[in-house]
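FAQ

Q: What does a record look like?
A: Structure on top, sequence underneath. For example:
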């Protein structure tokens, strides 16, 4: 039996309140079941089984297309929103200027999401040692 077809698989941090909220919204909109949701915070999840690391997946959002191609960052959100029927909202995010602003905004969020969601630990939010 073939697995259920999907457009994009999203690897999300289910322990992140902001992330979980957006995923819940996307699950509700995914009436055609075009998204496969994979919670990287699930104790049974194994990043190594996918040929990557938990740290890489925690540093920024990752997705995988049906053909096995990996995508990261804003491109994941573009694919997710297109999969639920918001392609009309996605295309402007590819325009020069807007695309760069979206990428910059996501990098700032990804770098700070643990702090902003109250999940900093000595390991996750420690400053690098000074030289």
């Amino acid at each position: 039996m073939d697995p259920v077809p999907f457009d994009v698989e999203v690897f999300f941090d289910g322990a992140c309140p902001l992330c979980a909220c957006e995923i819940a919204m996307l699950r509700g909109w995914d009436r055609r079941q075009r998204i496969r949701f994979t919670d990287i915070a699930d104790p049974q999840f194994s990043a190594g089984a996918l040929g990557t690391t938990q740290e890489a997946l925690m540093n920024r959002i990752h997705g995988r297309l049906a053909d096995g191609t990996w995508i990261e960052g804003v491109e994941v959100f573009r694919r997710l929103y297109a999969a639920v029927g918001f392609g009309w909202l996605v295309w402007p995010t590819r325009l020069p200027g807007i695309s760069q602003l979206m990428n910059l905004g996501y990098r700032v969020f990804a770098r700070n999401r643990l702090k902003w969601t109250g999940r900093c630990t000595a390991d996750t939010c420690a400053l690098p040692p000074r030289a």
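Q: Is there anything notable about this one?
A: The mean pLDDT is 88.
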